[in-house]
Design a protein that fits this description.
399 residues; two-stranded antiparallel ribbon
């Protein structure tokens, strides 16, 4: 694969080649580094105030996605979450107690030791990683390709056309018409904002144009990968009926037909036995901490110089002065559509990251709050790690 030297950015051909890499771990490293190089080149091309462009934020989001793709610390987090849940211990004890009169010989310790197998945690983590890796690739191939094409345009192509003289807007022919997920209308509009940013002299107008471009790209990509996000969050959450059956099979493994009929007797009468009630409580006690642990792992984002941001918590701090009271009419109209708490960070924490509107609400205010955060163009890798990635190897330190 052609290399992208430190002073360059991935060409459209390189973006496609990176997106087609088969190893999701190495591909993620290439994507993260590719976003950084695109972000840096965008900032150079557009001029002062462009450091907080969408690709700069995408660098750090892709870096976090890499942790999930590699499964770093997630199994330990799940083990700690399950091991520290008093509700789960109570549910385990109640289930074993309810099963004992029906002939089960299993103990609480035995059932607890089997939880990871019954929950198919390894399979769930694999499915989560696969979904996150798909989303990581899809967005880079979609947005990264659009930005790379934009940066390939000669500087003169960004000149303001004289509409009164029959001038025409750039067509950005590499973008598809229509709305997302298949169409790229918002990406087309975002490139127009970047072009206008490069030509604008007023600082406040430039800040609003960059913010509008970020929001339009962010809105597009969240719609684009909505299925992958929901799949990643839902992968570890087992189907309640399947989980009940697995637990029952373990509790009564080796049981004969008569014992299995005794276990099912109450359900045949349309009633819930004490064991049924205990199993329902156990299933819920298992599913809730699983979702909690996964959410805590995936929904964290570290920006340079900032504490780790929890995407389920409200953002804090002031908006940049230039974005405190937006006036650009198209920006105001889009914010009215997708930001339910205008000019406020209250309520920005996503209640459910699988819900598109909740995600977009957080992301819009995240872009606005951190557009001027220093250090967004900080390299995500050390020089030695960059050299390894460019040479086709995994970096030794995978953080």
């Amino acid at each position: 694969m052609p290399e992208s030297p430190e002073g360059s950015h991935p060409t459209p051909e390189e973006v496609r080649e990176i997106a087609n890499l088969s190893d999701p771990v190495y591909r993620n490293h290439r994507i993260t580094l590719g976003y950084h190089r695109l972000a840096r080149r965008l900032a150079e091309r557009l001029g002062p105030g462009a450091e907080g462009n969408w690709c700069a934020f995408a660098t750090w989001a892709s870096r976090q996605a890499g942790r999930t793709i590699r499964g770093e610390d997630l199994r330990r987090r799940l083990e700690a979450t399950l091991g520290n849940s008093p509700e789960l211990l109570q549910a385990l004890e109640a289930t074993v107690s309810a099963a004992r009169p029906l002939g089960s010989k299993r103990t609480v310790a035995e059932l607890k030791s089997e939880l990871f197998r019954l929950l198919d945690v390894d399979g769930a983590l694999r499915r989560t990683a696969e979904a996150v890796a798909r989303g990581n690739r899809i967005v880079f191939e979609d947005v990264g390709l659009a930005v790379s094409h934009f940066l390939q345009q000669p500087q003169g192509e960004l000149a303001e056309p004289d509409e009164s003289a029959g001038g025409r807007e750039p067509s950005w022919p590499w973008l598809r018409e229509g709305d997302p997920p298949e169409g790229q209308r918002y990406l087309r509009s975002a490139l127009d904002r970047l072009r206008a940013f490069a030509l604008a002299a007023d600082e406040e107008r430039r800040a609003e144009l960059l913010f509008l471009a970020n929001v339009e790209v962010g809105y597009h990509e969240q719609i684009r990968v909505d299925p992958e996000i929901r799949a990643a969050l839902d992968a570890p959450i087992p189907d309640p009926a399947q989980l009940r059956d697995r637990i029952l099979s373990f509790l009564f493994s080796g049981a004969g037909l008569w014992l299995r009929l005794r276990v099912r007797f109450w359900s045949l009468l349309g009633r819930r036995s004490p064991l049924d009630q205990a199993l329902n409580r156990l299933v819920e006690a298992l599913r809730a901490p699983l979702r909690e642990a996964l959410t805590a792992h995936m929904l964290a984002l570290e920006l340079p110089g900032e504490r780790s941001l929890r995407l389920g918590e409200d953002l804090s701090g002031p908006f940049p002065e230039m974005l405190a009271h937006p006036e650009h009419p198209e920006l105001v109209a889009l914010l009215e559509k997708i930001d339910p708490t205008p000019n406020s960070l209250e309520g920005t924490g996503a209640r459910d990251w699988a819900h598109l509107d909740d995600r977009v609400h957080f992301i819009v205010d995240f872009f606005r709050r951190h557009q001027e955060t220093p250090g967004l163009l900080t390299p995500p890798y050390t020089p030695a790690e960059v050299a390894a990635i460019d040479a086709g190897r995994l970096p030794e330190r995978q953080e």
